[in-house]
Amino acid sequence: MKIDKTLMKQIIREFQEASLPQILPRDIKLPKNPDKIIAVTGPRRSGKTYLLYGLIKELLASGLSPERIVYLNLEDPRLWPFDTSGFEIFLEAYRELYPSSALDSSLKSYLFLDEAQAGRNWESGVRRLYETRKFHIYITGSSSRLMSYDIATELRGRALTYELFPFSFAEFLKVRGIILNEVSQYSATRFSLAHSLNEYLTYGGFPEVVLADSDEQKFKILKSYMETMFIRDLIERYEIRNQAVLRELVRQLATSIASQFSANAFYRWIKTTYPVTKRTVINYARYLEDSRLFIMLARMSSSLKEQVLSPKKVYVVDVGLKEVFGFGQSRDTGRRLENTVVIELMRRKNKYPRLDVLFWKDIRKREVDCIVTESGHPVDLIQVCTNLSDIKVKEREFRALVTASNELKCPELKVVTLDEEGEETIEKKKIKVIPAWKWLIG
């Protein structure tokens, strides 16, 4: 059944008359008067809707009339099936509701279109609305269903994309009411920091998980996310037939965070249990990377071919998901900490698009976890290590940093640890040792 104007008017007014929920402020800020469409992507339940609510609250606080703000969630069953005709019905309904706003060419209204990918041929409708020049348009989409290249392809230069991750550690601390200052590490706050970091490394930063009351609740929520949303989205988007292989691949990747992943090795193992081709395994791995459920870091190399062909290091978008799908093993704090550092670097890359993140490894298998580049030039070399109390571990981590520094001509060297801090000089190169909480809050 097609949606009609009367129902559309009811939905528009319903939101305008409702009270918005309490908003937890996020570090990411969206422009208020954009010339382009603003697209926000990210995992389901990472807070995209509340990010829109936060901006709506700011607009209302600035004196903008509620009638100039429209919010539509295309996953609202009342709007199904929503297609290009739905956008025309919306335009007609809005013009009839607010003829003065619709006719005033000097004023733009704001349209917030949540979960845009739920609308059939949504891109045509959004382009049509954009070309009317009557609206500032904001859209959101789950990254497993609406990917960055979808936006780039379908909106053809009309959009700016922002990627939203679950809570950063700094946002996590704000939710917990922990206020940091220069003396925090010397006060009782340090115990709250240590406890908070341990919780964050275990259950991650999904807002609903952070606000849950018990560890059991946190686990159940994370399990439901992985099972009913992330995997379901991928199965529907790509019409995946061999679901058992996809689940085993997700389990393998979640178990192997902060390690190099070989599709060939996984194929040799999985084919003994399931009938599957190597091409299918490679495709499934690409789907998981494209969806941003997993982040894959390429190996830094002067040879583009080697960089493309070398196995990548794998990280999950939120370390809490490892708690659900990581095969039974120890807590493995080191890998969780490295995963957390890499995802924080992805957040910073989102703010500063000239940045990129890779890892480095030489022929003697010395490795640096993160090479941060700016416009292709290495600007920061980062090792992640829980502690440096073992002299062999310390020598290994420092030697890799010094070797990479010499090769890449980059003097900025860091080791992120759980709680150690200091500075050492090795072969005239300064290496800063930084506690994770301090590095994570930037």
Write up what this structure looks like.
It contains 18 helices and 14 strands. It has 442 residues and is α/β, with parallel strands linked by helices. It folds into two domains: 160 residues, 3-Layer(aba) Sandwich (Rossmann fold), CATH 3.40.50.300; 269 residues, no CATH class. Strands 9-10-11-12-14-13 form a six-stranded mixed sheet. A five-stranded parallel sheet has the order 2-3-4-1-5, sandwiched between helices. Helix 5 links the parallel strand 3 and strand 4. It is globular, with a radius of gyration of 24 Å. 38% of the residues are buried.
List the helices and strands and how they pair.
Elements: H1 5-17, E1 37-42, H2 48-61, E2 69-73, H3 84-97, H4 99-103, E3 109-114, H5 122-132, E4 135-142, H6 148-155, E5 159-163, H7 169-176, H8 189-203, H9 207-211, H10 215-238, H11 243-255, E6 259-261, H12 263-270, H13 278-290, E7 294-297, H14 304-309, E8 312-316, H15 320-325, H16 333-351, E9 355-361, E10 367-374, E11 377-384, H17 391-408, E12 413-417, E13 422-426, E14 429-435, H18 436-440
Parallel strand pairs: 1-4, 1-5, 2-3, 3-4, 11-12, 12-14
Antiparallel strand pairs: 6-8, 7-8, 9-10, 10-11, 13-14
Helix pairs in contact: 1-3, 3-5, 7-8, 11-13, 12-13
Structure keywords:
alpha/beta, Rossmann fold, 46% helix, 442 residues, 18 helices
- Straight-line distance between termini: 51 Å
The total domain count is 2
Helix content: 40-55%
Strand content: 15-25%
Number of helices: 18
Strand tally is 14
Low-confidence stretches: none
Coarse structural class: alpha/beta
Radius of gyration: 24 Å
The description of the largest β-sheet is: 6 strands, mixed
Strand order of the largest sheet: 9-10-11-12-14-13
Query: Shape from CA axes?
Result: globular
Average pLDDT number: 91
